[in-house]
Structure formats: C-alpha cells, structure tokens
Amino acid sequence: MPALANKTYFNYGGQGPLPNASLEAITASWRTIQELGPFTADIWPWLEGEVRSLRGALAALCGVPPERLALTENVTSGCVLPLWGLPWQAGDELLISDCEHPGVVAACRELARREGLSISTLAVKGLRGDLASTNASVLEALGASLTPRTRLVVLSHLLWNTGQLMPIKAVAHRLEQHPRRPWLLVDAAQSVGSLPLAEHEADTGGAGAAAVADIYAFTGHKWCCGPEGLGGVALSERLLAEAQPTMSGWRSLAQENDQGSAWHQDARRFEVATSCVPLLAGLRRSLELLEAVAPAPERLELIQKRSQQLWHGLSQLPGVHPLLEVPPPAGLVSFVVEGAAPGDLVSQLGERAIWLRTLDDPHCLRACTHITTTGAELEVLLTTLAELTRPT
C-alpha cells in the first residue's frame, strides 16, 4: 500500500489506502478493454462477467442475493436514487438520527421540501456506553420518537462521529410492528469492510443488518480499501416492489434496444448508465485481499484489538477523553483534548506525518484503526499526542 509509506495513517474511515495489487488490477482491466476494443462484439461478454462477478461478491459480503444488490458510485447515490423513488405522501414524517452524515441529511431535507414531508430527530449522539445499554436506549428513543406519520427511519450502522454501533436488526424488527411499517435507510459507509455482515446470519439464526434494511448503502473506498467512485446498495424486496428510478439510463432497462422497455425487476433498475468498469476489478481484488487475511469476524477482532489499545492509551493521557465510555466496537476512535483546538492538533500531527481528522459534531478528533494498523503506529500517535498536549 503506497499510501502507508513514510506516514502513520489513521483515516480509514475517510478513505482506505489502495493496495498495489488492486491498482494493478485496475490497470490490467483498462488494458483488456482496449485490447478487446472498447465498443465491439467481443467486449460485452467480458464486461458482463466483470459486473456479475463484483455484484456477486458484494451481495455475498452483505448477505443478500445478487438481485437485491445495485452497483453505485458512492453512499449518497446509493441512498438517494432508491429513496427519492418511493411513493411519498404529503405529511409523511422522516425520522433521522442526530448522528447522520450531512450528505444524507441534506438529501432528506430536499426530499422533504419537494414532497411536503416533515422531519424529526432520533437522539443517539449521547449514547456512549456499553452495547447492551446502548441498544436498549436506541429502542427506547425509537419508541418515543415514532408517530403515526413516520414513514422512514434513517440510522447509520456504525456512527461515523462517535463510533458507536447501532442495533439495526432490532430497529428493523420494531419498525415491522409499526402500523405503517416505515422504511429503514442505513448509511453503511463505516460498517461494510469493518463489520462482518453475512456472518451475523449464522450467528443469530436470522438475516444480518444489510438484509433487513430497506436501503443499506455503502462505498468501496473506505474500509474495503478499494478505489473511490464505486460502491453498492442492498435493497429490500418490498422496496423493489414499490420504488421507481429517480434517474434512469440504459442500465436501468430490462431491454436497452426496446423503445417500450420496462425497468429491471431487480436492483439493477437503480443503476443508471456508463460507469468506470476498471474500478470493478480494483474493488474485487481488494475484497479478495481482505478475505485472504482472515474471515470477516476475525478481521473485526484485529480491528478491535488496535482500536481498544488506542482507546486505553488515550484514556491514560492527561486531558484526553475518548467519546465512548467503553472500548469501541469497531475501528472508529473519537476523542477530545482539553484546551486544544482539534484543527490545530491535526495540523501539528500532520507536520509529523501522522494523519487523522477532525469532526464538527461533536467537535472532536477521530482516529481509525484497520487490520493494517500496527501497535508501533499507535505508540507513535500516543507519544506524539502526549508531547503536543503537555502543559508548558
């Protein structure tokens, strides 16, 4: 991974580094396209095989059948394209957690403006304790926030700002009991590639989080360490029965050359038009490399080992306070430093080739650990933080 050379990197939640093997796979794909001819009879079977292969890999990752998986460019398009195609009625209510990414919130606000919908807030930002108490509190807050008009709940699987894990399966079960069965939209930007998804099915005797959400949107460039510009969205069967494309193109159609052609009956109706095919090979190779290290549950254990080591180390530094009261459930470690401006600290760390980021709400710093993070790198970060925050 060239991006990990000569630096200490903790920004996996923003963008994961691309392995050399994945970069080479992208280059080889470009070369194959040109050798076959970018628009010839020879290219189409090969292109179809590339798309089918990655769709299958991502569907298996999410624990859903391939017909419920649409390829997208990013999390936002994975959320917006199916969301805006649902049959809304004026007065419907959108219940959005207070830890959602601004990109998703902005899309929901614009949807509400256009369709005459209302927006209310599901409070989860203050949930910083163990998972058992967090799960109970989420369900309690959900029960108090649902109204007869609630038509959609928006809740990330792994909160991008506090790093807390949300009980998506329990939330989905609660929504099934609501008279209107609100749709559940899950921002999975921080969960796909870091949390085991399909494996949860065997562990719990039921479908995993990606399989029970109506919209489970993710990107390949964060924890999957794939190229930017490629992601996916897992869609429920009932959403596929009710939603129509927001944007449409030749890939949305069951028969491209038929002027009266209808949409695909599966998730492909939310794929629009021409995309960068070589990126498929890059993401597929990154997924293969991750799986070669260990199965997803074991990879999470590696991620947790480092994140918990960092959490304990931060807790021992004077004036440094992790947001979570307990060791993090995955690789996101957010913290505040008394008397220090987060932006200034990030700049000072960057001058020493240590890279993490600031967040605005809550105003804090965030460091991410992945399977590539080493104990030595954590010591570098902790030692440097101790130096920079030592009273003068």
Verbal overview:
- Helix 1 (20-36) runs antiparallel to helix 10 and helix 2 packs parallel to helix 10.
- The strands form 3 sheets. The protein has a 7-stranded mixed beta sheet with strand order 2-8-7-6-5-3-4, with helices on both faces. A 4-stranded antiparallel beta sheet has the order 9-10-13-12.
- It is built from 13 helices and 13 strands.
- The chain starts with 7 loop residues before the first strand and ends with a helix.
- The chain folds into 2 domains: 2-18 and 294-389, Alpha-Beta Complex (Aspartate Aminotransferase, domain 1); 43-290, Type I PLP-dependent aspartate aminotransferase-like (Major domain) (Aspartate Aminotransferase, domain 2), CATH 3.40.640.10.
- The protein is an alpha/beta fold and 392 residues long.
Percent range for β-strand residues: 5-15%
Helix content: 40-55%
Provide the number of structural domains.
2
- Name the CATH superfamily assignment of the largest domain: Type I PLP-dependent aspartate aminotransferase-like (Major domain)
Q: Main beta sheet, described?
A: 7 strands, mixed
Overall average pLDDT: 94
Named at the architecture level, the CATH assignment of the largest domain is 3-Layer(aba) Sandwich
With helices defined by DSSP (H or I, 4 residues minimum), what is the helix count? 13
Class derived from helix and strand content: alpha/beta
What's the CATH C level of the largest domain?
Answer: Alpha Beta
- The first-to-last residue Cα distance is 38 Å
Instruction: Using the alpha-carbon principal axes, give the shape.
Output: globular
**Rg (C-alpha, Å):** 22 Å
List low-pLDDT spans: 200-205
